[in-house]
């Protein structure tokens, strides 16, 4: 009986949390396996449990609604422990993203701490790195398009384009799962972004954006697939949770739990 009450309380608490949650379309991601290009020495498949992911990255307008609800995450009140000085620096003020930032463009210059809090306030969470990579390996028709030259050239060409963060969401292709902007708009935080560390000795750590968001000449790389993935993993490996950059945004995910099963457990 006590356990049932705890489950019921948690369920109702989740409903209460999501009452404020903004309406963001989510898509169902079927479980499966994939072999990460980096981070596993044995190259064994990693199992992905079915989950849901936002179809689009979080926008300026959505994040503005969040900071209005939680002023502690506004630019002037954000503690330095949880975000560096560049946090929302492109905005005009605490509660105004300005005329130069589209309402439906992805919000950037947001730290991992802030992104995590935003997702939690939606009753969601940040996707894991494996979940993100699993979804990102799909093109319009295939679950895993990583071996397709055209797909990798598309990713490489994006790395060379400046200021894509200023573009509105949903302008890139809709992939197999129904998710947009995994490539072509901004880098994105993952829950365990720092689970794989790569050396940053070959670059100048003072300018993360310039040095890591650059793929000059990479289209002619001998292995586009590995190079495209390496850029992502190297970028993640350079980050700390309080860092913010103009090219880095996020989207949310959540576990796929059947409501019927929850009710049955309560009974």
Automatic annotation (TrEMBL):
| SUPFAM superfamilies assigned to the protein according to its UniProt record, in alphabetical order | C-type lectin-like
From what superkingdom does this record's organism come?
Bacteria
Name assigned to this protein:
Formylglycine-generating enzyme family protein
Identify the Pfam families for this entry: FGE-sulfatase
Q: Which organism is it from?
A: Flavobacterium flavipallidum
Q: Which residues form the Sulfatase-modifying factor enzyme-like domain?
A: 24-254
